[in-house]
Design goal:
Length: about 325
């Protein structure tokens, strides 16, 4: 863990190791939390957030599905994100907002007056599956664990409890010597990685499983689809059989943590040449080009982490 100086917790900036919660908090026992991961990139010395507002909107949407209200508005949390990057002296960062049911009830069904705790942390986090995988391709396996079935828990919501499934998929892959695992949907079609969406390249067409395949429809996934359209690349969202993945020309993962990571092999079968393919490399160059200016930000996805609260920060110091 790359520790930084301060974390924002329930309205105050506190030192890293002071951002604590009670062991009887509801979320710890029942997974009743919703969260986001947001990347901040160094753009020529200026930290810029990537689609920060969309991530925050999804946080609030996830809370809505689980029927609790976040006691802050989106603009307040966006300002906190900027402040954390600046206070911690970061030029690039990974932001982790989380809202969760706190202390006050141990019943499975939470009481209406149970407090909702909110925290945001900012830290440095490099390539999720490693720098080598970003260039050479990750070794991946199909997991024995399926993703959750429709109408069990909402797969399209970014909730803490959902990631128990992801842990099983990823731990199994690591135990077997792979970098990551891919889960199948309940009907046996391809779903997603433990924490990543999946894209296949076949005959120069970009194909990805649909939202109905028990996936979290990621913001990076949406970014790749929209960028591909601007590049004249055909994109199809469609159900894919397990065997189709072995016959792909190229494969790659997408996600806030994973960004765009090529997949070199699945179940020890090489995908294409067994290395990053040309269309994947082109997508990477276009995506990462957003952050050095070589790709035009035509969608307005980048948000400078500006000091909109300098006077308050100087008056209050680093921590409450």
């Amino acid at each position: 863990m790359n520790e930084t100086e301060v974390i924002w917790y329930n309205g105050e900036y506190v030192r890293w190791h002071e951002a604590t919660t009670h062991v009887l908090s509801h979320a710890l026992h029942y997974g009743s939390s919703v969260f986001e991961g947001i990347r901040v990139y160094d753009q020529l010395g200026t930290p810029v957030g990537f689609r920060v507002r969309e991530h925050m909107e999804r946080l609030f949407n996830s809370a809505k599905v689980y029927r609790f209200d976040i006691p802050y508005d989106i603009d307040t949390l966006l300002e906190v994100c900027s402040q954390l990057v600046l206070r911690n002296g970061l030029s690039s960062a990974y932001l982790r907002p989380i809202a969760f049911r706190g202390y006050g009830s141990l019943g499975v069904a939470p009481k209406e007056d149970l407090p909702i705790d909110v925290s945001i942390a900012a830290l440095q986090w490099g390539a999720y599956l490693g720098e080598e995988a970003r260039e050479q391709g990750a070794r991946v396996c199909i997991s024995s664990w399926n993703r959750v079935a429709p109408n069990t828990i909402p797969a399209g919501v970014k909730a803490g409890g959902n990631y128990l499934s992801s842990q099983l998929i990823s731990m199994e892959a690591h135990r077997l010597g792979f970098d990551e695992g891919i889960g199948l949907a309940p009907d046996g079609t391809l779903s997603e990685g433990a924490g990543e969406n999946l894209f296949m390249v076949k005959d120069n067409v970009l194909i990805t499983p649909p939202q109905a395949a028990s996936i979290l429809a990621g913001i990076t996934r949406d970014s790749v689809i929209r960028l591909a359209h601007t590049m004249g690349i055909e994109v199809r969202e469609m159900a894919l059989s397990r065997e189709a993945i072995y016959l792909a020309d190229e494969l790659f993962f997408t996600g806030t943590a994973a960004e765009i990571t090529p997949i070199g092999s699945v179940d020890d079968l090489d995908i294409g040449t067994g290395r990053r393919g040309p269309l994947t490399e082109k997508m990477q160059a276009t995506f990462f080009g957003l952050f050095d200016g070589t790709t035009e930000d035509r969608f307005g996805w980048l948000e400078p982490m500006e000091d909109g609260d300098k006077a308050t920060r100087e008056a209050g110091g680093a921590c409450a």
